[in-house]
Amino acid sequence: MTQRPAFLALVIALSGAACLAPAAALGAAPGAEQRTDLSPKDRQRVDAVTAVTTDFSKPEPFEAMAGGAATSTAPVDANAFSQFSANLDFSAREQFSLGNALFSKLWVAAPSSTQASDGLGPLYNARSCLSCHIRDGRGHPPEGSGDATSMLLRLARPARTPAEQAMIDRHDLLNFPDPTYGEQLQDLAVPGLAAEGEIDIRYEEQPVTLADGTVVTLRKPRYDVSKRAYGPLAQDTTLSPRIAPPMPGIGLIEAIAEADILANVDPGDRNHDGVFGKAAVVRDHRTGRLTLGRFGWKAQNASVRDQVAAAFSGDMGISTPDRLDPYGDCTVAQTACHALANGVQPRLGDSEAPDPVMDLVTFYSENLAVPMRRDVDAPEVLAGKALFYASGCASCHRPKYVTQRNADEKALAFQLIWPYSDFLLHDMGEGLADGQTVGTAGGRDWRTPPLWGIGLTKTVSGHSFFLHDGRARSLTEAILWHGGEAERARTAFSALARHDRDLLLKFLETL
Questions:
Q1: Diameter of the chain measured on Cα atoms
Q2: Do 317 and 327 meet the contact criterion of CB atoms below 8 Å apart?
Q3: Which of 19, 64, 221, 310 is deepest in the core (most CB within 10 A)?
Q4: Contact indicator for 54, 18 with CB cutoff of 8 Å
Q5: DSSP secondary structure of 437-488
């Protein structure tokens, strides 16, 4: 296929030469510090390499290496998300392998003959990390078979009193759990105990007509809990569905300098793109320090280790040194749950998954490599990239960063990476609202998910369900659900001719 320079020139002209203002131009958010890990020479290099491109006639330098030197160049197949960071040394690769074994480990109910593996539940959603993150990929709603293993419902109520609101304002709590069912619905239980209930999803078809007459049918979900085993939910409890997010690159995300993320906060909309963004402020569960949330659908966790500890406790009912309660999300109202045995073995430590387990699973999670991009120099991909920028998608899906020089993991330090996210919270409109406040995030707010690897969803996970609850059955549907701060980008996409929409989608499929 030949280049289309006239078309590209038109796109650039329509985008005003640069539809995405660089972070340096926006300036740091109020109170944000500048990076301290860079020398003046490094600062110049970083500014140059992360500057927003205006040239869509060829790929940018190193664009194919989405995870920098850590990028996996393994053949693209169903295991594309399960490769280790390519620049790990031999010793670190051994740690990765051990972490992989623990990530895949099936936990069992206590007591059992396999004492190092018991402690599951008593209420739980999955028996292993891999049960939700199948092949380290994206989860899905319970389609067809009704299997809800990789999807759950978060349960929370708002503050009811000024004192409760003050706790949220101080970031002591993210919200308040349902008094009976806790922080999430557990649809599985150990023998002799009733599971809490089942997710009930009903879809309403909503046709959307695009500018060229194409009709796309969206499905709007309604959520409820059926087969409730412990009585009613509180009247003000909200239900927020979440599918398991893909795993690759999360260690690199943690290695991004906090200042580089905060620099994209734009409360006054200084560049007039309709995009504001706000930082999630959370309290580190080990140090108590207020820090930037960057993991989870509402950016409720500050670090990969935070995310791992929360999943062990909430999803599997397994205690760790970071969360010592062996009964996980069992509430005080669930007395039968607390009457059962737990898997704490004093000779191994005071938790069911003691320190070596947490350390290794965290290391494994941090070093799941981002796959190398495909076809970055194809003319139709470059044209789609230009349309992605011109449509305003890159206002939230920020293309690239250079990670910190002093990152904890050497393999992840000072890498040029391409996650396509600003990792901020954005109002995504009423269509995607779940009504659930999670700390800084309101009921319409969601963290911008990274896009790297999104084009391999079908290859790895065997499906093409997107967004936080998998309602979108294609990338087109996912874009058309965007509202709020993303309304302009959605409108721009809807206004494109079919050929140009296909070009933009082709670009996304190479990420």
A1: 72
A2: yes
A3: 19
A4: yes
A5: -BTTB-TTEEE----TTGGGHHHHHS---BSTTS-BSSHHHHHHT--GGGHH
Residue count of the chain, please give it.
511
Instruction: Name the residue among 481, 461, 462 with its Cα closest to residue 471.
Output: 481
- How many angstroms separate the CA atoms of 441 and 380, rounded? 37
Q: pTM to 2 decimals? A: 0.93
Q: How far apart are CA 260 and CA 28, in angstroms?
A: 8
CA 329 to chain CA centroid, Å, is 22
- The Cα angle at residue 508 between residues 506 and 509, in degrees rounded to 5: 65
C-alpha closest to that of 193 among 44, 341, 67: 341
Both tokens of 311, joined, read 């999943």
Task: Name the phi and psi angles at 442, rounded to 5.
Answer: -85, -175
Q: Which residues contact 276 (CB under 8 A, 6 or more apart)?
A: 265, 266, 267, 269, 426, 427, 485
* pLDDT values of the chain reduced to their tens digit, one per residue, 511 residues: 333 333 333 333 333 333 344 433 333 444 446 899 999 999 999 999 999 999 999 999 999 999 999 999 999 999 999 999 999 999 999 999 999 999 999 999 999 887 778 999 999 999 999 999 999 999 999 986 667 889 999 999 999 999 999 999 999 999 999 999 999 999 999 999 999 999 999 999 999 999 999 999 999 999 999 999 999 999 999 999 999 999 999 999 999 999 999 999 999 888 888 999 999 999 988 888 999 999 999 999 999 999 999 999 999 999 999 999 999 999 999 999 999 999 998 888 899 999 899 999 999 999 999 999 999 999 999 999 999 999 999 999 999 999 999 999 999 999 999 999 999 999 999 999 999 999 999 999 999 999 999 999 999 999 999 999 999 999 999 999 999 999 999 999 999 999 999 999 999 999 9
CA distance 130 to 119: 17
Q: What is the residue extent of each domain of the chain?
A: 5-86+251-278+368-509, 90-245+303-352
**E strand spans, 109-196:** 123-124, 151-156, 188-189
DSSP annotation of 292 reads E
- Strand (E) or helix (H) holding 426: strand 425-427
Q: Are 277 and 426 in contact (CB under 8 A)?
A: yes
Question: How far is it, in rounded angstroms, from Cα 462 to Cα 456?
Answer: 9
Provide the 10 A C-beta neighbour count for residue 201.
21
CA distances from 119 to 26, 125, 336, 338, 489 (A): 50, 14, 16, 12, 47
